[in-house]
Amino acid sequence: MVLRTDTLSYKYRYEAPKSELYRTLISEQLKYFQRADKSIQALKPGTIIIANLQTKMHQLITQNTMKVNIMKADDIFQLETQQPSGKIVQTYKFEQEHSGANILVYSEQNVFESNRNQMNFMIFGLMYKYFYNRGVRKRMRYLDNLAQNIE
Questions:
Q1: 79-92 burial code (b ≥16 CB/10 A, e <16)
Q2: Residues 6+ away with beta carbon under 8 Å from 86
Q3: pLDDT for the residue numbered 1
Q4: What pTM was computed for the model?
Q5: What's the number of domains the chain is made of?
Q6: For residue 18, what is the domain's CATH number?
Q7: Would the pLDDT of 120 be above 80?
Q8: According to the model, what pLDDT value does residue 60 have?
Q9: How far apart are CA 82 and CA 90, in angstroms?
Q10: Facing residues of 16 across strands?
Q11: pLDDT category of residue 90 using cuts at 50, 70 and 90
């Protein structure tokens, strides 16, 4: 496994059936896309929205293009967010640990157009990782509970 300084990742052991968790993930992503574009009825590779999002490093609101890159049922879901300063590739990947436990790996690869921004992210990323893990853990738990019909 290659350690990338531009990628943050988090592994979550889930309890829900894999197919239910994948369906729930897609359903929640669809709702997000529909808030930006009510005409979207289903997600598929190539589905695009334009959204105003806050940047991690400078806390600025910027216009972004979000696109579904990959959808493979019960295996992987990937989004790409194009920002003025680069792109973020978000991936949800269903895997199994050596122990047999089911895990959902969420990763964010941050690619910046300028070397300065890339270097700043590598430094900032070390501090951001704590908040990232906490936020992703909360999101994963929410999806897992929703897939199991637990409020």
A1: bbbebebbbbbbbb
A2: 110, 111, 112, 113, 117
A3: 43
A4: 0.84
A5: 1
A6: 3.30.530.20
A7: no
A8: 72
A9: 11
A10: none
A11: very high
Alpha-carbon distance of 45 to 72, in angstroms, equals 10
Which residue carries 């700043």 as its tokens? 120
Does residue 3 lie within any of the structural domains? Answer: no
| Domain extent for 129 | 8-147
Neighbours of 142 (CB within 10 A): 13
Integer-rounded Cα radius of gyration of the chain = 16
Query: Is there a contact between 10 and 143 (Cβ–Cβ < 8 Å)?
Result: no
Q: DSSP string spanning 91-114?
A: EEEEEE-TTS-EEEEEEEEEEESS
Q: Round to whole Å and give the CA distance between 33 and 50.
A: 9
Between CA 36 and CA 39, with CA 38 as vertex, the angle to 5 degrees is 120
The Cα–Cα gap between 46 and 17 comes to: 27
Q: 8-60 pLDDT, tens per residue?
A: 889 999 999 999 999 999 999 999 999 999 999 999 999 999 987 766 655 67
Rounded to the nearest 10 degrees, the angle between the axes of helix 18-36 and helix 115-147 is 120
* 38 contact partners, CB below 8 Å, separation of at least 6: none
pLDDT at residue 93 greater than cutoff 80: yes
